Amino acid sequence: MTLEQILTEVSRELSGALAKQNVARIAAHHRIQGSPGFDDAVNEIKGVLERWHIPCTVHTYPADGKTKTYSWAAPLGWSVRSGFLRQLSPKEQSLVRFDEISQGVIAHSRGGTAEAEAIDVGEGTCLADYAGKDVIGKYVLVTGKPQEVAPLAVDHGAIGIILYPTAKRAGEWPDLVQYAGFWPQASQIEQTPLGFSISRRQADTLLAALRDGPVRLAGSIDADLGPGNLHVLEARIPGHCPQAKEILLISHLCHPTPSANDNASGSALLLEIARTLAQLAKKGKLKLDRSIRLLWVPEFYGTLPWVALHRQQVENTLFVLNLDMVGQSPERLGEPFRVSRAPGSTPSVLNAWFEPLLERIEDDPNTIAPRGTRRTMQWRLDPPSGGSDHVVFSDPLFGVPAVMFGHGDPLHHTHLDDVDMVDPTELKRVGVLAATLALLPGTLSRETDRLAGWLLRYSLTAIQRSFELSLGMKEASIEEFLGLALTLEEQRLASFKRLLDDASIPWDESGLRQALTAARDALLKTGGGSAAKYDADNEGPLPRKAFEGPLPYAFFLSLSKEDRRFMEREFTGPYGAITLEALNLCDGKRTVRGIALRLSLEFGHWISIETATRALEILGKGGWVELCSPSG
Ligand SMILES: [Zn+2]
């Protein structure tokens, strides 16, 4: 197979319109982890897979609010049947109904009914928010995360929480209702309050009324919180070379109805990719060398137990593509498609394949779907991101290169993320990209030169970028930055060579190797540096990650206000990516200085040694990192 053959066949078979139909079917289910609606969505997808004769299995893991997998405690099961919040006085009006806006009931809310006064406590996440306020027996209006608000509010005697967006979160959408959950552990069931979520516009009328006198509300929720099950759906399209490493595609299926882009879109597209590959293989249009494994999961909470019980399969994976928010309409939302590349801790040739493929797909008329956009695709290749399942695989426990495909979206985690915001052409283009990537290792013998060219282009750009970053830098020299960038790109080259060796394809890498060194030397000369070898890892303590698996969310919630503000400002990046990559680099062999320089290269801005030192100390305080001396 050649690249062109793959693009032609995949574009012909993969349907953006069918993918969007799947989005609508999945979006109809209220898919909170460990709830009946999630299981209904699993069965919906399973039914389609079976219709296409794609073998699949459902795995069951406990949702008991206590079982731990790699530092992550399982959530509790929850089921909700109905709920409403009404204002009784000074005027009577309906605020939210679960059957109209599912986000109106905060996930994991307890069941019950209460008529009570409302009181505003602002964010509601620290003691000062409650000082001098009588909240006993009342509904507290809050803007903070319900899992942080709940313990304090309940401690102060509140019976329920009403979440509303800050002005910044609401932005130009005053009617958006946010999705949120309490995420209680088994020991916290009794302390979980009633929870509602309303819009900024509604909150503003309540806040205005509260300035003139009491506001009475009536709320009711029919729900159960307790032990349940988490389900992971796994499918596999077998390849012809059982000894070749597999490709793994994953999408989280969770979130409330509709949550169309986040992430009915990824789940639906994964299903359409599975159908496309199975159909093309069946029709003899393509020969699948490597097996392709597909997972539909409760985000993190299903992925972690699955990898823990399938370590051999994960270790036998070449790379992971995580599809998370892949259908955003360019007309209605205007956000570009984003590839969050694999981090430097897992150097891989995969990163070199996105730009050339997207340039090929972006205005290919064969990727336009009926009723989809006809605009040229807008896309960005970004630094790594955290926040979703790909980080489980890139953790040093497995070290599998893993990337995320997604979009920014002002409506994500709100009730306005509905099927109207999903574009079939965008789905098709991302689907063609993902399916082509999954098949690309199978073209190695025919496409060696093209792929080598792509790799050279990527690596030269990376070296040039490191040079630009080093300009005007005081703490590190041009030599150091260029040296690190060159080492990283040599590792990427080695990953390509390994791929060719494994397929017994002869190839001489010396040409590319020389080109990379020459580029480094030319830039060194331009910048007035010498070719002297610098070693960023030769002095200072050597931090080592002291736990297995990705850092749990609980880490950020456990920090003092001051530490948390510092981490969020200096060391977080996209969804915690800087902290996660720092931990990936803490292998007991790299110094804090070496880690700071690598993070700077990765994220394209200077992360000082002082910042890295303080961040690693904060991680050390919580026992997440050990600081070893070089001798010991
Ligand atoms: Zn998502």
Describe the structure.
Helices cover 39% and strands 18% of the residues. The protein is α/β, with parallel strands linked by helices and 632 residues long. The protein folds into three domains: 3-74 and 228-442, Zn peptidases (Aminopeptidase); 78-224, 3-Layer(bba) Sandwich (Glucose Oxidase, domain 1); 542-628, no CATH class. The strands form four sheets. An eight-stranded mixed β-sheet has the order 1-11-13-12-14-17-15-16, with helices on both faces. Strand 8 (160-163), helix 5 (167-170) and strand 9 form a beta-alpha-beta unit. The radius of gyration is 26 Å and the shape is globular. It starts with a helix and ends with a strand. Bound molecules: zinc ion.
What does the secondary structure layout of this molecule look like, with pairings?
Elements: H1 3-13, H2 16-27, H3 36-51, E1 56-63, E2 68-69, E3 72-73, E4 77-89, E5 93-97, E6 112-120, E7 139-142, H4 146-155, E8 160-163, H5 167-170, E9 194-197, H6 200-212, E10 216-226, E11 228-237, E12 246-252, H7 260-282, E13 292-297, H8 303-309, H9 311-315, E14 317-323, E15 337-340, H10 354-361, E16 379-382, H11 390-394, E17 402-407, H12 424-439, H13 444-470, H14 478-502, H15 510-526, E18 542-545, H16 554-558, H17 561-570, H18 577-585, H19 592-603, H20 609-621, E19 625-628
Bound molecules: zinc ion.
Residues 252, 262-263, 324-325, 388 line the site of zinc ion.
